[in-house]
Amino acid sequence: MERGNHTVTEFILLGFSTDPVMQMILFVLFLGVYSLTLLGNTTLIILICNDSRLHTPMYFFIGNLSFLDLWYSSVYTPKILVTCISEDKSISFAGCLSQFFFSAGLAYSECYLLAAMAYDRYAAISNPLLYAQAMSKKVCSSLVMYSYTGGFVNAIILTSNTFTLDFCGDNIIDDFFCDVPPLIKLACDVRESYQSVLYFLLASNVITPTLLILASYIFIIAAILRIRSTQGRLKAFSTCSSHLISVTLYYGSILYIYSRPSSSYSLERDKMVSTFYTVLFPMLNPMIYSLRNKDVKEALRKLFKLAPSNI
Q: What are the transmembrane regions (predicted)?
């Protein structure tokens, strides 16, 4: 990839601030968030694997979501931490490409997985007697496999099209990671075909899963309204509330960043929104799915109660 008369071999990540004191504060904050992300998601995965009461389709998807969040946050946060405390803000061209590819693949996979989780909730509420048959192990495994396959196939398309752009001028990325908006700002000329690719990927990886989720919830609401007792309705809706919060936060931030024309990108504003879905959201997910969940709380109490006797 040529820039001017020489080859671009690295990019410079500006991060959030050049002030040393602020960088140290940010380092402590991001380290704390990352530690909580690792602890929360790892604990949730262990609980789901160890407690037989959590061996259900819903928790199977939640466990996979926690695995995705562990991987997703690890694509960004270690580099952010290094950038905060090191004078070397550079990232190699290959490193930028790898970070871009894995972040896109994991983000797209999570979009599909959240759609699969919406279908799971629909199957559980609309016809609970046939739930086990409708969401068999084979069906659940296939949905997760399709989520990963679809996510990473589309990531290949996005990465190959992005890193064949002609980059010129500065190689400075005004962000804390390699992402579409700042890389477009460095491109000499963004072809209409590239913008078409972005809209195609937005439609296939974000808009389509969003529509599937909306359709699932329309049927879920219809099923809930058919329940006669108020207590039954509240109980049915409570099984969807965590997923609904997760979907709103995740899809809302992604649609805000990527559904606009490249000419309207505001790097400073987008940087804050990107921080939410790349760093904070993976930390929040375990809390969203466990704080109001009696089964997870009971499994957690059981785990700590058994722990002393095993030492």
A: 24-47, 59-77, 97-119, 139-157, 199-225, 237-259, 271-291
The CA distance from 304 to 215, in Å, is 40
Taking residue 86's Cβ as centre, other Cβ atoms within 10 Å add up to 10
How far out from the chain centre does Cα 229 lie? 36
CA distance 117 to 60: 10
Q: Write out pLDDT tens, residues 150-164.
A: 999 999 999 999 988
What is d(CA 288, CA 293) in angstroms, rounded to the nearest whole number? Answer: 9
Per-position DSSP letters for 100-167, written without gaps between them: HHHHHHHHHHHHHHHHHHHHHHHHHHH-GGGHHHHT-HHHHHHHHHHHHHHHHHHHHHHHHHHTTS-B
Do 169 and 186 touch, CB atoms closer than 8 A?
yes
- Strand partners of residue 172: 12
- pLDDT tens across 74-100, in order? 998 998 898 888 888 889 989 999 999
